[in-house]
Amino acid sequence: MERSFLLRGNVIWSETPRKLAAAPRSYAVCLDGVSMGVFPEIPERYRNLPLLDCGDSLILPGLVDLHLHAPQYHNRALGLDLELLEWLGRVTYPEETRFSDSAYAERAYSDFAQALKQSATTRACIYATVHTEATRRLMELLDETGLCCFVGRVNMDRNAPDNLCEADAETALRETERWIEDTLGRYRNVKPILTPRFLPACSEKLLAGLGALREKYRLPVQSHLSENTGEVAWVKQLAPDSQSYGHAYDRFGLFGGDYPAVMAHCVHSTPEEIDLMERRGVFIAHCPQSNTNLGSGIAPARLYLDRGIPMGLGTDISGGHSLSVFRTAEEAISVSKLRRRLLDDSLRPLTAPEAFYLATKGGGAFFGKAGSFEEGYRFDAVVIDDGRLAAPRELTLSERLEKVLFLSEDRDIRLKYVDGLCVLQQEEAV
Amino acid sequence: MERSFLLRGNVIWSETPRKLAAAPRSYAVCLDGVSMGVFPEIPERYRNLPLLDCGDSLILPGLVDLHLHAPQYHNRALGLDLELLEWLGRVTYPEETRFSDSAYAERAYSDFAQALKQSATTRACIYATVHTEATRRLMELLDETGLCCFVGRVNMDRNAPDNLCEADAETALRETERWIEDTLGRYRNVKPILTPRFLPACSEKLLAGLGALREKYRLPVQSHLSENTGEVAWVKQLAPDSQSYGHAYDRFGLFGGDYPAVMAHCVHSTPEEIDLMERRGVFIAHCPQSNTNLGSGIAPARLYLDRGIPMGLGTDISGGHSLSVFRTAEEAISVSKLRRRLLDDSLRPLTAPEAFYLATKGGGAFFGKAGSFEEGYRFDAVVIDDGRLAAPRELTLSERLEKVLFLSEDRDIRLKYVDGLCVLQQEEAV
To answer: What's the complex ipTM?
Structure first.
């Protein structure tokens, strides 16, 4: 019965990008970790379940972060006057080299896991570094939090600093397979994901080998795609025969299809690349804060959403500086307005319900049925006390949600559930 | 001696937009509310002053908010899918009509004053509404916080909803003068400022009368300028003889000169308007979060900064949603990157030290010598415990400042001083 109960409160979730569902003072039913739906009164068949009354709090699906780099957690907000390629060399790679030191990794990853636990995020796709031991330790620490995570040992065998560059493709693949064998099925909530860093840092041989590992172990893939104009130009030089940046992954079976792939950014995707993503069912991790910080530009999220391409949000720590997916949702709305004003007035800005959809059900789809309270979804929830944001007049639930997207802080989270297990309970909890 | 003391800690301030000064473990000297400078050791002549050791905390000048609307505090994050003119009609004006109700005003303004007190802001230029009594109450509440504020009773005598539109220019001017007589010199920290809302809402007769009041009472002026393309086009229709939007204020003596004026936004200022601002010493309140939220665009802050036009930051509650000037500084940096990428690559993005300058000394100049610890400046300070943002490696003071700009929250503020008086002391305070 531990994972079977009723939560009472103001329940809000997305049915579609345009359709926000809001049930005031209603009952969300969790049975063995799975949502049975939301009801205005307790259905007869659930009368015996324990009930937790969350008062006037908001009950939202857990947030999903489709793209972030755990070793960059302590680099948040640093070096943000640089663009992508220079920033990698001067800020990102130097920090990642520190993860060969297990004491450093222990401290940094402990801080990261604790911060992620205290955020509204319940599921995430996470990059580690090339260091196998530190990656394994990160997976353990995350598993202890109860959050559901895909974690990737990063592959790089070219165009990377010596101490982060794997000796050659064979070594990289051997070590990656050893890591997969070691971690696949080992944890309750954490799973490995193949992680070629990005095309400029991966030889064709490495990519081909990762494609074979994907088939052998039926693994998902995460990487970067069409983020920055400098990077895109470089990929054109490196893979002159590919019809697009995405095609350069697709040639090796690393671009969706049988097993899901999530590609971060897609700021500068060409029409051919977008068509290919659509055909392969590739997930987009939209990372607006990072794209702004690194001067990459603004991805056409409205276009992707209207085309029905699977999409969620990514904080992209530390291209993005905030670990909060609420802040990412805020930025997704904000930059979509600037994009219309400055770049292309044919694409309407994202609305708050659409950004909320991306933050929950949109990204959740990468994990199966997650990110909603509809029947059959994994029961992931955050209970938010938004009393700090109250007004002298009564606000609608959709107004309260808007305020939470733009103004809530981690300290407003009272409870967090993943798969029906309570993983966080904060002071003044209901 | 109450306002004479030494603060020890990591002191950071701006000398110029490009020159950040950082004094680790040093002594900031306050004598009768005025800064005497920052010293690595206690100078002999100050040996007898009481010393407060702030440990490893950061000591920054208080932040300055050059533009915000107090009655919109509870509207933060609401209606942000609308552009300026529609948003005024559907979100802003309906809220302002509520301030004819003194009970509503009491509650809303109390919340606002409390929130401003708990922020890092020490000085602000604030709009109230057309309601004289509520405006006076706001001034009292702010005076009790110890913050230094200019507060404006708003003038509108055309193109406004009936219940916010003053009967005619004569009535508006009579009531405004009554309010000035009543409040000028009445408070310790709060002063009246003339506040024609924006040109579309003010007749020529009203503007001319306000120009006369400005001379008679030697008052500063605040208003809006060239915010949104729809508004700018409207002003062209309403004031066809003016060479620019700014010139339409200048004709009535409301655009700087002998007494300072601060104009919010300046997103779409023409070269003629910029020349006029420069000649008149008009202050710009740069409000990047608001300009993004309302789809107004991105002001060329780099251009203004390099031209030496006086400029600070404005949260523009509730066009902007965050009351934190740190967040405004973050946005100023962020949007300057998007502006370069999407609009005009000749203007370099703002750096973190430049944004910090705008948030402190840049805006502080509107209040005289404020926003720095240089000798002779008003001693306004915030003591920030940034322990939450620490990393496993040692960060430089300038890195710690970057983190504070992007990631600090109000709860990190331990102490706040205005004119050498402690106005805020929070739990776990040093």
So the answer is: 0.95
